[in-house]
NAD-dependent protein deacylase
Amino acid sequence: MQKIVILTGAGISAESGLGTFRAEDGLWAEHRVEDVATPEGFARDPHLVVNFYNARREQAAAAVPNDGHKALVKLEAAFPGEVVLITQNVDDLHERAGMGRVIHMHGALKSALCAACDHRWEAPLVMAPGDACPKCAAPAARPDIVWFGEMPYDMEEIFDHLAEAELFASVGTSGNVYPAAGFVAEARRNGAQAVEFNLEPSAVGSQFEDIRLGPATKTLPVWVDEILAR
């Protein structure tokens, strides 16, 4: 086996105390998605949106990587082929666990984006509406997050990896949000085996040959050991 492609979602970060997108408590429950995760919401009330992501950035900074994150680091370090990690998460727990390159298809809390010139820089812990871009000086800073209605990052590279994958793994994703929910079909179309790790089968669970139910902190270390023992 030469290439494993792994997609992670909110479920793996939830075990580090970060609320999932559909959590009944926590930050997301206090706001409508339309108000804090769309370009229109940002245009209506930039203070609300920026403060929402400031709170998420603070929460993420206080979280620590869990055994699920660490298992993927172990796989990347010891697997003789290539391990590609794509995440829907905007935290940096994979990187802090020791993972190499992580493809953040939905952006990153630690990054700021200039809406005027597309320049990116490291976001301060607390952003403010109207912060100036360090490159063009426009008062157009925004969180570097892919909102609903925007195109996820690095899609061409992601589909190239899916075309080459011999094994595709999905960890802690709902299977409700596209295009990520279509990755398993794309990988299977190109001949990959597919395994899902979740607390319960996702909306696209029927497309996986192998489903491992339970916390990722428990199921991922066992799976990684299985892969490395082959």
Observations:
- Residues 46-62 form the longest helix (17 residues).
- The mean pLDDT is 94.
